[in-house]
Amino acid sequence: MIVIANSRTPEEQIQDIIQVIEREGLQVHVSRGEDRIVIGLIGSVEPRLADHLRQMNGVENVVKISKSYKLASRDFHPDNTVISVKGVQIGGGELVVMGGPCAVENAQQIDEIAGLVKAAGGQVLRGGAFKPRTGPYSFQGTGVEGLIMMAEAGHKHGLVTITEVMTPEYVDICAEYADILQVGTRNMQNFDLLRKLGETDKPVLLKRGFSATYDEFLNAAEYILAGGNPNVMLCERGIRTFESYTRNTLDLSAIPVLQNLSHLPVISDPSHGTGRRELVAPMTKASVAAGADGLIIEMHTDPDNSMTGDGVQSLFPDQFAELLQDLEKLAPLVGKSFATPKSPAGILS
């Protein structure tokens, strides 16, 4: 349930409303927009409380929210959430690009790629230190050493860093070295992990499960939000369908649908969404046209020999740089800003 008040309602009246709600043992979530203030009630609301709130000074309306995801719902939070990470604004007017390898392989590799991401105009360095693999004998990542390597590369080149966390036990160590924590598709409904991430103050990029509905996806985000962490991004990374030509089917409709249902930033992953290098650029542009707040794109200096075997979906550095130059032209057409370096040709030579 939400209580709606005008943005010009005196603060004293807002606090009176909050006190009445909290006396009933309910949690309160306040969202202040330009035109109205929305006070969310979390818990079981008695009809008598709803009637009482309707009669209070400053209250314009009391509305019951039927969605199971309260905090993630746009009804609860009408304005877009903007997440600020070291000066990078995610969910606002800037198109954010996260680029880098599937996995951190060694210090030289991640340092070189970080320099290329920065030179091309990317703002975030991606790289996995712990890798969830289908087969137990596949490369499982460089672990904590990889976290340290990526943190050093990000600091050196002035990039925000993002890495995947796989278990609740690794949340604290990943949060110590990375700026954004990623939840992979296999862990979207790892509720113990989501609860733990709700306790951290680090932003979380939550990837959609490869068979998850929108409701299931947003309810997974709700676990993190309900734990006290408001900084959640939703990532469409492709779903599993009957089609075998692509690794997954990138659900472009998820971008506007999620933005309609939720206030959280929406990121697109065209690399995993297609699994084919030649499709990454067109699906990146399609994602921007659909309204994505950002992209997470795999790029590797030697993708055909990457340790994870995902090289087939990784761009070469010149392809990555060329794509970002195209995004600089495309972004303003959909109301986004994106400025690449003035002379990116240096990394193409």
From TrEMBL:
Keyword Transferase carried by entry: yes
Protein name: 3-deoxy-7-phosphoheptulonate synthase
The UniProt record lists the keyword Translocase: no
GO molecular-function terms, A-Z: 3-deoxy-7-phosphoheptulonate synthase activity
InterPro entries: Aldolase_TIM (IPR013785), Class-I_DAHP_synthase (IPR052899), DAHP1/KDSA (IPR006218), DAHP_snth_FXD (IPR041071), DAHP_syn_2 (IPR006268)
DAHP synthase ferredoxin-like domain location: 1-67
E.C. numbers: 2.5.1.54
Boundaries of every DAHP synthetase I/KDSA domain copy: 81-328
Keywords, in A-Z order: Transferase
Protein encoded by which gene: aroF
